[in-house]
């Protein structure tokens, strides 16, 4: 990072955070003498207090999928985003990035590791993902289901390999607290799932190699936990790991104090990081699911240890689960907003099972589903395992008896059909704050953007994330205004970036009106934002979205309030599966659904010059990321021109009614 970045980053911190970081720097220097073999263990009382699971059963088909994944791991293959990690043998290379093939340093003191330099460390996100040890918990789960010792032996071999090659405070895997926290969760669950394997205690709580790793991980987390502008989901992961490790492995005199520290921090953070309406304050759909999983896993560990979290904590978990259940579409897909890195906390099911579905299923088992919740699949091993160590709760207070569609604190409105079904229209409008804390690290420049789905098929999409490190031009594109279904003015993003996880300005959006979201033929939301107020003409962008349930249409009306005309670009990005044909200002859309071909018509605003971009690189335009590390060309419809104050830019997409769609499909089948 450049000196300018460090200056900008320091400006985002308050006095208390600066003092905490100064303390941390001082402590880091003092710890240099403790690295590696010099790490001294205090007196140890070997003990496993994590409890055991009854032999569990997977949902139909899931057991076979889990075993197939475990067999692939035995062959050395493990998927990491868009790459395959080479985990062949008993002693894998923990320092080679599976995406670039570059090897990171293994012996430097952790504060000296140049982890942001892809040329020296590779793609750090891919590298760190392997050492979260999700593949180890999958192997342990396979052993738990089958009692096939091949899975247990490989899980143990990989853990011992990692413990030997990553001594305390040495190398790239000691840099980030979130990684340490997630590893502790994986170790607790590996021990739990391998209960009954011969000599398991000697491999974990009775082994000095593990004891040193456990003590160093927990000491690091207690000393250097995230603070201030960094106290987001990273802090949740750090404290969830510290709590799980301290409760399940109370090996040291300080273990109980660490557990109390972690529990108290989590009790505070679940309030600080969650809006009153239940959504996560990072305002990123993937991170809502990740935070819910972190907080739920921590609560289940506390239950297993007989030290439950407070009723208020569980009530906030219930609010988070209800918010997720209310915002998923008919296919149980969550909203796509802001960053998402496909992060998981505990993986004991096939890795392709959606995290949002697993979390809803686990919460339904432990907290109960509200009457309006969507139907969920049979519980898999992951949700069942969590439910096995946490007691079912009936919480005090009233729970909503109908599905909410407006989340005013988070600034999310869901416009949808009143009943789910194969032709459900679903739309999310963003009118909330620009991210969380001073950095707004996982926010995008997407005020008043929206996404539209039909029967769960994404039509007009949020572009996704693609990458964090190493490819700054791509990082910038996927966060940019023009990549979203949004209006860009004066050729600028709505917010000024200061780095890959730092925004220097935070535009404010606000809701103006909302009606018909819960009933009636029309659902309508209007909101505005001030991102461009300081630019010539002092423009204020207003957007109104109207869902006509009877006419099967969605209308988007954009208006600029200001003192002068402004140069504008109105962007609409289609999902890669959507075919399109632009004729003037009309776009014919087509895609293949489960019931056959579907079509829709998008009418674009007059007065703009429309062009089509797909997979462009100079400049980057027209891309979609379906998951972290993956990108593919997508059609971007871009309208450019001068917009006068008060001028309406009116867009409308119309779907065929269910009956007409059925007739159309019959005619197409006959013609074929």
Question: Any overview of this molecule?
Answer:
- It contains 18 helices and 25 strands.
- The chain is an alpha+beta fold and 672 residues long.
- It has 2 domains: 35-389, Glycosyltransferase (Alpha/alpha barrel), CATH 1.50.10; 409-671, Beta-galactosidase, Chain A, domain 5 (Distorted Sandwich), CATH 2.70.98.70.
- The strands form 7 sheets. The chain has an 8-stranded antiparallel sheet, covered by helices on one side. A 5-stranded antiparallel sheet has the order 3-4-5-6-7, with no helix packed on it.
- The radius of gyration is 25 Å and the shape is globular.
- The model is unreliable at 661-672 (pLDDT under 50).
CATH architecture of the largest domain: Alpha/alpha barrel
The CATH topology name of the largest domain reads: Glycosyltransferase
How far apart are the first and last residues' alpha carbons, in Å? 59 Å
**Which strands sit side by side, in order, in the main sheet?**
11-12-13-14-25-18-17-16
% residues in beta strands: 15-25%
Q: Could you give the count of β-strands?
A: 25
Biggest pleated-sheet summary: 8 strands, antiparallel
- Give average pLDDT, whole number: 93
CATH class categorisation of the largest domain: Mainly Alpha
Number of domains: 2
Spans of at least 5 consecutive residues whose pLDDT stays below 50 are 661-672
Radius of gyration using CA atoms only: 25 Å
Structural class: alpha+beta
The tally of helices reads 18
Helix content: 25-40%
State the shape.
globular
């Amino acid at each position: 990072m450049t000196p300018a970045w460090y200056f900008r980053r320091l400006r985002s911190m308050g006095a208390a955070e600066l003092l905490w970081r100064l303390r941390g720097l001082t402590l880091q220097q003092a710890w240099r003498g403790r690295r590696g073999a010099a790490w001294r263990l205090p007196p140890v009382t070997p003990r496993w207090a994590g409890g055991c699971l009854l032999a569990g059963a997977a949902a139909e088909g899931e057991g076979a999928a889990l075993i197939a994944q475990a067999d692939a791991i035995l062959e050395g293959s493990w998927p990491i985003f868009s790459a395959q990690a080479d985990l062949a043998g008993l002693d894998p290379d923990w320092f080679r990035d599976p995406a670039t093939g570059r090897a990171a340093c293994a012996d430097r003191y952790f504060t000296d590791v140049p982890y942001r330099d892809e040329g020296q460390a590779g793609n750090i996100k891919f590298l760190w993902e392997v050492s979260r040890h999700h593949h180890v918990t999958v192997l342990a789960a396979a052993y738990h289901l089958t009692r096939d010792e091949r899975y247990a032996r490989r899980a143990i071999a990989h853990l011992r390999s990692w413990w030997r090659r990553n001594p305390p405070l040495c190398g790239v895997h000691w840099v980030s607290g979130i990684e340490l926290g997630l590893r502790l969760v994986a170790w607790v669950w590996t021990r739990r799932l391998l209960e009954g394997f011969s000599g398991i205690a000697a491999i974990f709580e009775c082994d000095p190699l593990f004891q040193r790793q456990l003590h160093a991980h927990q000491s690091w987390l207690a000393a250097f936990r995230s603070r201030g502008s960094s106290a987001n989901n990273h802090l949740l992961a750090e404290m969830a790991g510290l709590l799980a490790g301290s409760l399940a492995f109370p090996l040291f005199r300080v273990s109980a104090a660490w557990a109390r520290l972690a529990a108290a921090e989590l009790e505070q953070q679940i309030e600080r990081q969650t809006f009153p309406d239940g959504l996560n304050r990072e305002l990123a759909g993937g991170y809502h699911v990740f935070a819910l999983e972190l907080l739920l896993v921590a609560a289940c560990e506390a239950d297993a240890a007989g030290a439950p979290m407070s009723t208020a904590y569980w009530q906030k978990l219930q609010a988070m689960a209800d918010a997720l259940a209310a915002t998923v579409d008919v296919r149980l897909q969550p909203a796509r907003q802001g960053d998402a890195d496909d992060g998981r906390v505990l993986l004991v099911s096939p890795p392709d099972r959606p995290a949002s579905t697993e979390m809803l299923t686990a919460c339904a088992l432990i907290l109960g589903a509200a009457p309006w919740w969507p139907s969920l699949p049979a519980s898999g091993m992951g949700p069942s395992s969590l439910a096995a160590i946490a007691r079912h709760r009936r919480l005090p207070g009233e729970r909503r008896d109908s599905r909410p569609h407006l989340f005013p604190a988070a600034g999310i409105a869901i416009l949808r059909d009143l009943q789910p079904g194969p032709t459900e229209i679903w739309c999310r409008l963003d009118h909330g704050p620009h991210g969380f804390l001073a950095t707004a690290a996982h926010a995008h420049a997407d005020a008043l953007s929206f996404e539209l789905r039909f029967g769960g098929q994404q039509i007009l999409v949020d572009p996704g994330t693609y990458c964090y490190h190493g490819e700054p031009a791509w990082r910038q594109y996927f966060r940019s205004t023009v990549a979203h279904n949004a209006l860009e003015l004066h050729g600028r993003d709505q917010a000024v970036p200061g780095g890959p996880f730092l925004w220097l300005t935070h535009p404010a959006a606000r809701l103006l009106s909302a009606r018909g979201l819960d009933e009636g033929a029309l659902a309508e939301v209007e909101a505005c934002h001030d991102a461009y107020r300081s630019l010539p003409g002092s423009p204020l962008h207003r957007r109104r979205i109207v869902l006509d349930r009877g006419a099967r249409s969605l209308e988007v009306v954009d208006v600029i309030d200001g003192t002068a005309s402004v140069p504008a670009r109105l962007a609409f990005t289609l999902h890669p599966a959507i075919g399109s044909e632009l004729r003037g200002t009309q776009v014919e859309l087509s895609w293949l659904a489960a019931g056959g071909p579907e079509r829709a018509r998008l009418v674009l605003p007059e007065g703009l010059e429309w062009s089509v971009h797909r997979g462009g690189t100079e400049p980057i335009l027209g891309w979609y990321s379906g998951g972290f590390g993956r990108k593919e060309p997508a059609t971007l419809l871009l309208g450019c021109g001068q917009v006068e104050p008060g001028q309406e830019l009116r867009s409308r997409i119309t779907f065929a009614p269910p009956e007409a769609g059925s007739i159309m499909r019959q005619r197409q089948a006959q013609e074929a």
